[in-house]
Amino acid sequence: MIVPSGEMAVCSRGPEVLEAYLGTCVGVALWDREAQVGGLFHALLAEPLGGSPPAEPLRYAATGLPLFLNALEEKGARVPRLEAAVAGGAIVGPSDDVQLDLQLGARTLERIELFLRATRIPVKLSETGGTFTCCLRLHCLDWTPEIVPVGSHFFRPAASSDIPKPDRTAVESAVAQVKPIPQIAFKILSLLRSETYQMGEISREIRLDQVLAAKVLALCNSPIYGAPEKIESLDRALVFLGERRILQIALSVFLSGIFPSKPGGYSLCKGGLFQHAVTTALIAEFLARRLNMAQGRAYTYGLLHDIGKVVLDQLVTEKAPLFYRQALQNNRPLNEIERELFGMDHSEVGTLLVQHWNLPVDIADAVSGHHNAEAPLLKAAPEEVALITLADFIANRFLGGTHMERLDQTPVIAALRRCGLSAEKLEKVIADMPLAQVRQQASGF
Ligand SMILES: [Fe+2]
Ligand SMILES: [Fe+2]
Q: For tag attachment on the chain, is the N or C end more exposed, with fewer CB atoms within 10 Å?
């Protein structure tokens, strides 16, 4: 069972394995062997901002830990018998960057360590402050904790040390083989980009595409959107959800077919790469709303930002031992490893694919610049590229575990400055983010 950020789970002895995927968040597992009770708490931030009691106390270490302890005690656990495992708390920026004190993970971790010291709960296992997402597990059958880097379950030692590397030509021909995107998706993209949602012709076309219409209606009727009654026609869906949301759903449905569905490669779970795309798109839209930027564009860029990974995914799957070994054993950003193995990183491959699809140049900018601190300075819409860098960062650090990523921190700091966000403001934005909704929507396709 996965315990998402800002939540906790408490269990009695049994075959259940509790898991939390942790980047900047911090996970705490506590267990009492005598009472045969244990649990896992996944804290997002250190403490609520502004002093008033938070609406969701489990988001914060300061307010969530007492609740977690209460829940364990209610099931029979006693504090003097508890043992702990702690993981996560990845750092964000260079620690000497005084202007942007972004040590969100370090502060959450500090809170948790203070609490464990004050309650005299011994820490049996701990791995904190790294740069890569890890998974904290608690096996409820024998109360064994475990901390593993994400992707390690795909790691197989290479049979031979000289696995041939695919070269640039192989990557380019893989790009050329990706099927073109349908005309209707193209039209939806340009409506979303121009922020004019005159659907007329598009809704006719969606209606004609029965598979698409059915999928859009099924999504509208899923609990995610909370429709008060069953929506049976596209017209009703338009009234209920609005045109922008319908266009976003339709575009996401189209693109979902292009993303790999099986785990392996970049996906750490079924559809993981696509879930990351939708998560980033929704967070980018949320950030755009907060910063008074174009929401339709932000969603589109977010959805497409890692599209290069769709191409590299096939090559990664073939060269898996080499890829995972490099990714897990080297403390380097993933795009550096990609350049070494494939001659190009996923931003470059994505840009080629966007050009192959004849998509507009601003989309190519967002794809090519999302990991590049310098790029936003050169582009026509630098804030929008920076917004995607931030949305990607938040998706990876606070809603991680669906796909393989290890970010270079430098562009994040530059992107914050470009969007005019201070560390405090960013913390406020993260605290206000509708995480559960984002998760639900991203896994709803
Ligand atoms: Fe990326
Ligand atoms: Fe990404």
A: N
Cα 179 to middle of ligand 1, angstroms: 21
Query: Would the pTM of this model clear 0.85, i.e. be above it?
Result: yes
Distance 309 CA to ligand 2 centre (A): 9
CA neighbor of 44 nearest in space, from 56, 55, 52:
56
Q: Considering every ligand atom shown, identify the ligand nearest to the alpha carbon of residue 280 and give its number.
A: 2
Domains of the chain, CATH where assigned: 7-149 (3.30.1330.200), 168-179+258-443 (1.10.3210.10)
Q: Two tokens at 5? A: 């950020």
Distance (Å) from CA 76 to ligand 1 centroid? 45
Ligand showing the shortest atom-to-Cα distance for residue 281 = 2
Q: Counting ligands in written order, which one lies closest to the CA of residue 335? A: 1
Three-class SS of residue 191?
helix
445 residues of the chain, pLDDT tens digit each: 999 999 999 999 999 999 999 988 999 999 999 999 999 999 999 999 876 778 899 999 999 999 999 999 999 999 999 999 999 988 765 545 545 556 788 889 999 999 999 999 999 999 988 777 889 999 999 999 999 888 776 666 555 555 566 778 888 888 988 888 888 888 888 888 877 766 676 777 777 788 888 888 888 888 877 778 888 888 888 888 888 888 888 888 888 888 888 887 888 888 899 999 999 999 999 999 999 998 888 999 999 999 999 998 887 766 666 677 777 777 778 888 888 888 899 999 999 999 999 898 889 999 999 998 676 666 667 888 999 999 999 998 888 888 888 777 778 888 888 888 887 888 889 999 998 889 888 887 7
Per-position DSSP letters for 240-287, written without gaps between them: HH-HHHHHHHHHHHHHHTTS--SSBTTBSSTTHHHHHHHHHHHHHHHH
Beta strands in 99-172 (DSSP E): 123-128, 134-139, 144-149
Question: d(Cα 117, Cα 123) in Å, to the nearest integer?
Answer: 9
CA of 338, nearest ligand number: 1
DSSP state at residue 79: G
Phi, psi for residue 36 in degrees, rounded to 5 = 55, 50
Q: Ligand 2 mean position to 380 CA, how many Å?
A: 21
Cβ within 8 Å of residue 269, ≥6 positions away:
263, 275, 401, 402
Q: Do residues 388 and 376 make contact, with C-beta atoms less than 8 angstroms apart?
A: no
What spacing in Å lies between the alpha carbon of 240 and ligand 1's midpoint?
33
Distance 291 CA to ligand 1 centre (A): 22
Ligand in nearest proximity to the CA of 394: 2
Ligand nearest to the CA of 302: 2
